[in-house]
Specification:
This protein has 122 residues and is mostly beta strands. Strands 1, 2, 3, 4, 5, 6, 7 and 8 form an 8-stranded antiparallel sheet that branches. It starts with 5 loop residues before the first strand and ends with a strand. The relative contact order is 0.37.
Length: 122
């Protein structure tokens, strides 16, 4: 299959709730970038997080294998950690075309909310 997607994606909306309701890790409040690589070569991806009142965080590096998908929780990014209860945005850059989707699970109350949207291809 031909590679689908773009090499730069923007998620202008980001927020990891600081609390959760329900068993972990399934019901842990989180944000995720879902990446799809339909090409025949691995995609090397870089994620940078932008904050309202501080310098950008990252970049974090990850690989999306050829013809595979990776769901990367922002909660799991370390050194530094993405702050909770803080608005942020992110830019995803790849050396190969990928498709990016943004998902949030907000389980601060028993009535959970799930948000998902395609990221903006730049």
């Amino acid at each position: 299959m031909d590679p689908l997607g773009a090499t730069t994606w923007v998620i202008a909306e980001g927020y990891i709730p600081g609390s959760s309701n329900g068993p972990e890790p399934q019901m842990l409040s989180h944000e995720t970038v879902c990446l799809l690589n339909t090409g025949d070569e691995d995609a090397h991806v870089e994620i940078t997080v932008f904050l309202t009142d501080a310098e950008p965080l990252g970049p974090w590096q990850l690989t999306v294998p050829a013809r595979r998908t990776v769901h990367q929780r922002f909660n799991d990014l370390r050194d530094p950690e993405v702050p909770r209860d803080t608005s942020y945005a992110s830019v995803i850059r790849s050396d190969r075309p990928v498709v990016a989707q943004h998902t949030r699970l907000d389980s601060r109350q028993a009535e959970n909310a799930l948000l998902t949207t395609i990221a903006y291809p730049a």
